[in-house]
Design a protein that fits this description.
Largest interface: A-B, 32 and 23 residues
Order of helices and strands of chain A: HHHE
Number of helices of chain A: 3
Number of helices of chain B: 15
Distance between the termini of chain A: 63 Å
Order of helices and strands of chain B: EHHHHHHHHHHHHHHH
Largest sheet of chain B: none
Radius of gyration of chain B: 31 Å
Largest sheet of chain A: none
Number of strands of chain A: 1
Oligomer: heterodimer
Shape of chain B: elongated
Strand content of chain B: under 5%
Strand content of chain A: 5-15%
């Protein structure tokens, strides 16, 4: 990629990333992880370290099923 | 499974990508862009960049920067046009998180317009009973050191320091040229090995000079003919006269100084810096010969 292609690439990825900010759901996790991977692969070593430290979401444990309780 | 979006994480990623876009498109003739670029390099090199900057903004750790309580931190960002209200958590961690979500452009703005805000220094100096001028002069020095330290964090450790050497170690350790003359190979290997022991440096110099005399006889015929053939070989596509002169000079040094000959009329080499200089001058020439020889013939065995 030349410089202009890189700028276009990162501009697009920034927009894609931002679109998930309010709309990331569990059924979109696979495509989101692919996006993250695409971004990661294009970053420098130092930028990768910074990117890897970012937490985008956390999993919410399913509510307990009271039918399974022994009492 | 449900997920909970971490909005702060997205903001951090957006800041990172904006930094990437800046580094791809900044104007190298624009002073403001150059400032941002240097700041960005410091940010990339120093993994604690945001935390260390946060401590300055908070005025923690005996910084000359004004102490900012929760109220003043909120005011600090508000005065800069950012809607950040301190949530009561530990001040420096909260500021660090705000900085992590900020692009380098925003960070430069925070530093220039906020961190060095004169009014804040005046207030702080008055509160602490300090001399405002002194405190205000000390802050840029501290900040400059922070940037310089950040930029230098990634410098690789120079092993030569550990070994008390101050030269290009590549020639000493990595050069991998063996000849078909085992005696010559042994002399060079011993010279290199001895050189790594400070007390054996003089012996190393003697061995490398022995290697030089040996390599002069590498080719068939008498010593003069062989040496001329060697000089011709290493001079290919280069200056024959120059290398001929180098051979002569180094031969004369070997004869004049107490390197291989120990008569009383020989000059002493007492300073390690001169021994280092002569050792590497000779090793460089020998290495050139070895490379040229290797290129012209099949090498008997791989390197040590």
């Amino acid at each position: 990629m030349d410089n202009n292609e890189k700028i276009l690439f990162f501009t697009n990825k920034l927009q894609e990333l931002s679109s998930y900010k309010n709309g990331l759901t569990s059924d979109k996790l696979k495509e989101f992880e692919i996006l993250k991977q695409e971004i990661f692969q294009s970053l420098s070593e130092k930028q990768r370290i910074r990117f890897n430290k970012i937490s985008f979401y956390s999993e919410v444990p399913a509510p307990p099923n009271y039918d399974d309780l022994p009492f | 499974m449900d997920i909970k979006i971490n909005e702060n994480g997205f903001k951090q990623a957006e800041a990172l990508l904006n930094d990437v876009l800046f580094s791809l498109s900044f104007d190298k003739t624009n002073l403001n862009d150059l400032k941002k670029f240097k700041l960005l390099k410091a940010r990339e090199q120093n993994l604690e960049f945001e935390m260390e900057l946060a401590e300055m903004i908070c005025g923690d750790n005996n910084h000359p920067f004004p102490y900012r309580s929760s109220h003043f931190l909120t005011q600090f960002f508000s005065n800069l046009g950012y809607n950040q209200v301190h949530d009561g958590s530990t001040r420096r961690f909260w500021v660090r998180d705000v900085l992590l979500e900020s692009s380098i452009e925003k960070i430069l703005h925070i530093i220039e317009k906020g961190l060095f805000n004169k009014q804040d220094f005046k207030r702080d100096a008055k509160d602490k009973g300090n001399n405002f001028e002194e405190q205000y002069q000390l802050a840029p020095i501290k900040f400059k050191k922070f940037i310089e330290d950040s930029l230098n964090l990634e410098s690789t450790f120079d092993l030569s320091y550990l070994l008390d050497l101050n030269f290009d170690v590549e020639l000493l350790f990595d050069s991998n040229n063996q000849t078909n003359d085992d005696e010559l190979n042994k002399l060079i290997a011993e010279a290199k090995s001895r050189f790594l022991t400070p007390k054996d440096k003089h012996i190393a110099l003697e061995k490398i000079w022995d290697a030089f005399e040996r390599i002069k006889t590498y080719f068939e015929g008498n010593k003069k003919e062989s040496a001329e053939k060697l000089v011709k070989l290493i001079s290919e596509k280069f200056d024959n006269e120059f290398l001929q002169s180098e051979f002569t000079i180094l031969t004369n040094i070997g004869n004049s100084y107490r390197i291989r000959h120990h008569e009383t009329d020989k000059k002493e080499l007492v300073d390690n810096k001169h021994i280092n200089y002569l050792f590497f001058r000779m090793l460089t020439l020998i290495n050139l010969c070895l490379v040229a020889i290797k290129e012209t013939e099949e090498v008997k065995s791989p390197l040590i």
